[in-house]
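Re: the request from the purification team.
They wanted to know what the chain is likely to look like in 3D before they choose a buffer screen. I agreed to run a prediction and write the result into the notebook, where they can find it.
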Amino acid sequence: MVLKTIWSYISFWYFQYTLVTSLYMLEPTERRIFNTILVAVLAMFFYTSCLFLPGHLMMMLHFVRYICGYDNSTHAVPQDS
């Protein structure tokens, strides 16, 4: 019973997805190609987000902390001896 409920829920949202994107007018092969390309693009988006976003967020955080005057990091500056 639970699996039937889950299946009907997923089927409903897939039906909504096909209606909103007008995929219901395509042939099954065309629909598969479109969905494959969409999944590939989303996978690349999430992969690059996980790969590059943390570094960019840290860079922005350091910049904001520097602008606001909260940056307490000391950079190696040569001292005259």
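For the purification team: The longest helix spans residues 28-68.
Please add any questions underneath this entry.
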